[in-house]
Fold this protein.
Amino acid sequence: MITRLAESLGYRVLEVRHGDGTLAVGGHDGASSLRVGWRPLIVEGYTGSGSIDRFAIRTRDARFRRELRELRGRLRNAGEDDDPASLAGPILGLMQPGHYGVRIWRNANVHIEPFGENGTTWWYPYEPIGTEGTAVIPTDLWPPRDEATVAGYAEAIERGERPLAVIVRAEPPGDEQDCASFLIDGHHKLAAYRRTGIAPYFLDIARLADRRPCEPDDLREVIAGDEKLSQSAANLMRYLEDRRR
């Protein structure tokens, strides 16, 4: 079923047999986690407040973001016209074994949800202003600070080039207006697209697996004992725990 959904959305389905698991996305959309170096970096999900609001919590331990930056050094520079399976190869080699869908997602409709000082971000799907399309969750500073790099990409985009930022998802989007993705590479590229007003292009990688939520321990680890975050995430935690029984 999920494979057919992926193919209907333009993904090419690939099997990863020997991925090392240093980069992993688990759960399902609305209750997923991004793990780097076998520890959770970000957990996203619904708040369970009775509304449709969603949130994400990022670990405040800067070591994990540094690890992700180091992993980016192993990624190829993605060009628009390349085969998505070839482009995704270095990334899939970092992920856990399993099936994935890969596609070049052109003219994507997205909104960006940067983290605040307390390591959280909140959004409401379907809002007429600001949250239309897929939520893109940065894994590094947003907006990026290297102005020269952003300006260089913006000039290239205005010349007609379409560099690819890289996102990973817990599953293919059943509804592009209410789904989330993790931006693992291309923060400067995405900022440049925003500056030019041109819709971005992505190398889009979706995990294909049973619809099970991420582990409760992933959420506990990113909360790291913070009482306020524990209260905010209480409903999501109950959902994760109930589904694991």
